[in-house]
Amino acid sequence: IVGNIYKGKIVRILPGMQAAFVEIGLERTAFLHAADVYVADVERNGHYEPPPINELLHEGQEVLVQVSKDPLGTKGARLTMHITLPARHLVYLPSSKHIGVSQKIEDDETRERLREIVKTAVDDDEPGGFILRTMAENASEEELKVDIRYLRKTWKLVNATVGGTPAASLVHEDL
Length: 175
Fold this sequence. Notes:
Blueprint: E1 5-14, E2 19-23, E3 30-33, E4 43-44, E5 47-48, H1 53-56, E6 62-69, E7 78-80, E8 85-86, E9 90-93, E10 99-101, H2 108-121, E11 129-132, H3 141-163, E12 169-172
Parallel strand pairs: 3-7, 10-11
Antiparallel strand pairs: 1-2, 1-6, 1-12, 2-3, 4-5, 6-7, 8-9, 9-11
């Protein structure tokens, strides 16, 4: 179920562990650590440090989460609120404006060419960022634009589904 997106409900917060347990409709509640809660970057003592979990979330709150690790044995799934949607050449980051390139693409000219294609294909006022995957190394501008359109459409469908979905429900199933 890694990659699946759920509308979850916070059922318990453990400040000592900086964690919350989230009901997403599986056999066991899932685990969400404070570092995986989406908030605008907060600097404390010169580096990013998440605020205490009980300042970020409260019991009964509904949240949009993605499974980052499958349940194993007696442990529930690990969750994140940093949602990502993958396609063939790109990964969409709805809560970021960053445009990154896979580290496996080592040629600087190729990295810059790919970054520029995505920058020109995306309007400044459009939300979200992208990571160019290794598969994008030899991709054409049109192939990248097709991925961008597909990912934005998929994200719109996810958002449309969330509104009418009860808590503890699957919203989007990863391929």
